[in-house]
């Protein structure tokens, strides 16, 4: 692979007009911010973050539902990043209930095996994490265990972004982690330049260079700049497990309306693990928090520093929105690496 300096020089030679590309991955944003990559990009080449953080795109209504499980005296288990995301009446951390941080669903099942209480796992994540959740449910955990499925699929959100045209994008850098599992066949339906990229600075620079070339040559394809980890079909076994347990459903994303077939609900044969059904809880639509522009950041039409609250009222200690809570959230990342654009 060419060095970072060579790729940067090639990009500088190639960029002949303004370009805006979107990545859909918090890990890409963290790598870009940590390496200061934006500072070496040629003028006119912009890379914006889309809805690539699974915690950030979880709408407030789902956080409120998680709080309802606390009210019903359940043990609520989830990832640490979700703990401090504010719902309309506080966060899981401030709920005063029995809320436990776990590394994954298997740890939540272990809790259920050692108690008679109901245990609800708040299950967030894109295609990357779903197969593990599905495989665990196939193993038939105890009856006092259930999940709130907050899973989302990336392609339907991309389709929505393309249909809206709000962010004036020239192309997408596809999420390497998601594509390891899902492959990239499904993205071939989109008439826009796309490149799957890895997470080293060189991977990202190569991805950007390939995107610029596609635009210049008038091509709209999915190219793979991360062949050491990703193939077109993805992990067939993992997808089989995933769709053996879940089926697509229409769900809202934070910052987006309800996007058809962009969520995952449990299939009828696994409904006994559906916490929403078990406890008769409806997910409500909640209007966004005043002043927070997470919704616009997640759609790529604003950046964290456009928010009047950034670094002042809203900090990692006092987060107003989820993008300042999650390690994959743009605001938290920009705050950590002092990104100012
Ligand atoms: Fe929301 Fe805080 Fe980010 Fe502003 S800085 S968009 S309030 S998370």
TrEMBL record:
Q: What processes does the entry annotate via GO biological process terms? A: protein maturation
Keywords, comma-separated and alphabetical: Iron, Metal-binding
Task: Indicate whether Ribonucleoprotein appears among the record's keywords.
Answer: no
- Metal-binding found in the keyword field: yes
Q: Which Pfam families match?
A: HypD
Superkingdom of the source?
Archaea
> What one GO molecular function would you report for this record?
4 iron, 4 sulfur cluster binding
Entry's family note:
Belongs to the HypD family.
What NCBIfam families does its record include?
A: hypD (TIGR00075)
Name of this chain's protein: Hydrogenase formation protein HypD
Task: State the organism of origin.
Answer: Methanofollis fontis
């Amino acid at each position: 692979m060419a060095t970072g300096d060579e790729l940067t020089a090639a990009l500088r030679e190639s960029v002949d007009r303004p370009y805006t590309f979107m990545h859909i991955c918090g890990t890409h944003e963290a790598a870009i911010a940590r390496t200061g990559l934006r500072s070496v990009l040629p003028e006119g080449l912009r890379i914006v973050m889309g809805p690539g953080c699974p915690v950030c795109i979880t709408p407030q209504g789902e956080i409120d539902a998680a709080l309802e499980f606390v009210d019903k005296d359940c043990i609520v288990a989830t990832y640490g990043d979700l703990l401090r995301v504010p719902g309309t009446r506080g966060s899981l951390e401030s709920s005063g209930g029995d809320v436990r941080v776990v590394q994954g669903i298997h740890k939540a099942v272990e809790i259920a095996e050692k108690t008679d209480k109901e245990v609800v796992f708040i299950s967030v994540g894109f295609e990357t994490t779903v197969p593990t959740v599905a495989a665990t449910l196939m193993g038939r955990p105890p009856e006092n265990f259930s999940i709130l499925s907050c899973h989302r699929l990336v392609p339907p959100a991309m389709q929505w972004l393309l249909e809206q045209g709000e962010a004036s994008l020239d192309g997408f850098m596809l999420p390497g982690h998601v594509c390891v599992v899902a492959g990239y066949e499904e993205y071939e339906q989109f008439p826009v330049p796309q490149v799957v990229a890895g997470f080293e600075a060189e991977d990202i620079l190569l991805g950007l260079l390939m995107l610029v070339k596609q635009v210049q040559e008038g091509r709209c394809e999915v190219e793979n700049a991360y062949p050491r980890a990703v193939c077109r079909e993805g992990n067939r076994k993992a997808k089989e497990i995933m769709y053996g347990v879940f089926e697509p459903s229409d769900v809202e994303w934070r910052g987006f309306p309800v996007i058809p077939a962009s969520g995952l609900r449990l299939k009828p044969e696994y409904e006994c693990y559906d916490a929403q059904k078990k406890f008769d809880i409806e997910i409500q639509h909640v209007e966004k928090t005043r002043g927070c522009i997470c919704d616009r950041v997640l759609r790529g039409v604003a950046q964290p520093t456009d928010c009047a609250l950034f670094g002042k009222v809203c900090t990692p200690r006092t987060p107003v929105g989820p993008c300042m809570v999650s390690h994959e959230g743009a605001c938290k990342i920009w705050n950590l690496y002092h990104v100012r654009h």
